[in-house]
Amino acid sequence: MAAGRSPQRNSSSITALLALCWAAVTAPKDSDPPTQDGGMTWRWNPDAITLSLFESTLAEKELKKETIRFIAMKFQIWKTMKSMLFLNLEMSKCELKSAFIFMDDVKHVLICSSSRIELGDVTPHNIKQLKRLNQVIFPVSYNDKFYKDVLEVGELAKLAYFNDIAVGAVCCRVDHSQNQKRLYIMTLGCLAPYRRLGIGTKMLNHVLNICEKDGTFDNIYLHVQISNESAIDFYRKFGFEIIETKKNYYKRIEPADAHVLQKNLKAPCLGQNADVQKTDN
């Protein structure tokens, strides 16, 4: 399983942005002068916003705080958001949904404008972080042997950091099957609020660079739940193709079927068996 749950707009991110809007409509104080807009008084109230942040992982809370700070500095965008939510109270459900999507996209642009993405080694000292991330990101669980093996693969396992916060990870292993040297992506994913920020791309590029430098890998492959369309689209952008579908690949989640996605690094030999053997995570 190499990507997170099936795509859906992140409710916690929207919750933080809505909290930002609602908390700003407060009574004016002598300090922090209010502004008048459409007959309503607006005042920046970071304390109210902070208190309204919904309990979640440290990474999610940090992202929400950064989102709030960035948007507060961008008054024109902030004014547009206020107008969409408060000056047109007769908005249809469709229009309101578009407003939410707009705010989420604003968050994406502003966060990307001031971000640092880095990859770090997985060690015995931070293996618990990897376990916690996998528990949150993926709908399947991994046993102790998985984490023991991860500590042995060196550069094939990395934690992804966004502004020094661990928000994702990639774990791979070398697989010798079908008379080939193959790289199997066991997991690759990041926390939902951090998607679309280039973190997955950085992790996958790290893996592809390893294969390119090595020069002996025939292909890279992974399993993706058939309902995870965003993950499938992501890998296709990098040249992966669905080569088969494994029925009942997953034991405790629905849908249980998984696509096998593969990227060939060498031209396959004529007559080579194209079937991919099922490999346990």
UniProtKB/TrEMBL annotation:
Q: Which GO terms fall under biological process for this protein?
A: mitotic sister chromatid cohesion
Q: Give the family from UniProt.
A: Belongs to the acetyltransferase family. GNAT subfamily.
Report the GO terms under cellular component. Answer: NatA complex
Q: Where in the cell is it found?
A: Cytoplasm
**InterPro entries from the UniProt entry:** Acyl_CoA_acyltransferase (IPR016181), GNAT_dom (IPR000182), N-term/lysine_N-AcTrnsfr (IPR051556)
Q: Which PROSITE patterns match?
A: GNAT
At the highest ranks, the source species' classification is: Eukaryota, Metazoa, Chordata, Craniata, Vertebrata
Protein's UniProt name:
N-alpha-acetyltransferase 50
Q: Which organism is it from?
A: Chloebia gouldiae
